[in-house]
Amino acid sequence: MTSKVLICYGSRYGTTTEVVQEMAKTAEDLGVKVNTVFLKKEKPPSSFDEYDLVIIGSGIQAGRWTKEPLNFIKNNIDSLSRTKVALFVVCAYADDPEKRDEAQTLFLDNIIEQYPGLLPISNALIGGAFDFDKYNFAVRALVKNMVSRKLPPGEEMPEKIDFRDWDQIRHWITELVSSVAF
Ligand SMILES: Cc1cc2nc3c(=O)[nH]c(=O)nc-3n(C[C@H](O)[C@H](O)[C@H](O)COP(=O)(O)O)c2cc1C
User: Fold this and answer.
1) Residue 116 class from Cβ within 10 Å (0-12 exposed, 13-18 middle, 19+ buried)?
2) Model pTM?
3) What is the DSSP letter of 152?
4) Which residues make up the CATH 3.40.50.360 domain(s) of the chain?
């Protein structure tokens, strides 16, 4: 029987959507059926009985998950506690050796602790991207200020900084679906 995976996620600027698309494509290439739900615009299924795995993730903004996937966890904690679950976040700190551990604690371990019953079989910290074209004036100024402190002196600010490691993303989803599907 074909295995089924559900990916429910939140994204503010589209980076996480692209990560989810790559996860879905990778899993589908392995013969798994994947449903993706962008929780801000789409309704998740009312039951997860038909799924072998539910993956929940979010882009991080100002130290927080987007609200929809957190609400999704809160509203479905009973069903999720009877389902195989994996979590991921997409964030800038994932690529910063000084911040990576903090990001793991704040954006993943603390969320898992907050919801007893949620027992993810895996979780992943995934590098994000800054795409200045997508931000309004205030956000662009804020992020440029934050990023400029990390640039070597004299280096010009690029219009896009992409920390996403596509090999890591494909490796994570491959291991994950292999562990539940075959
Ligand atoms: C206003 C703003 C605030 C951010 N705050 C954080 C943060 O606190 N920690 C972090 O690791 N990344 C932070 N980031 C980086 C985002 O997590 C990264 O851009 C990610 O790719 C966003 O995902 P999305 O495009 O799906 O919304 C921030 C980005 C923006 C634009």
Assistant:
1) exposed
2) 0.96
3) P
4) 4-128+163-181
The yes or no reply on domain 4-128+163-181 and CATH 3.30.70.580 is no
The atom of ligand 1 lying closest to the CA of 127 is 21
Residue type, 115: Y
Tell me the C-alpha distance between 163 and 41, whole Å.
26
Cβ 173 under 6 angstroms from ligand 1? no
Burial 129-144 (b: 16+ CB within 10 A, else e): bbebeebeeeeeeebe
Cβ–ligand 1 contact at 90 (below 6 Å): yes
The two tokens of residue 47 are 């039951």
141-167 per-position pLDDT tens digit: 999 888 888 788 888 888 899 999 999
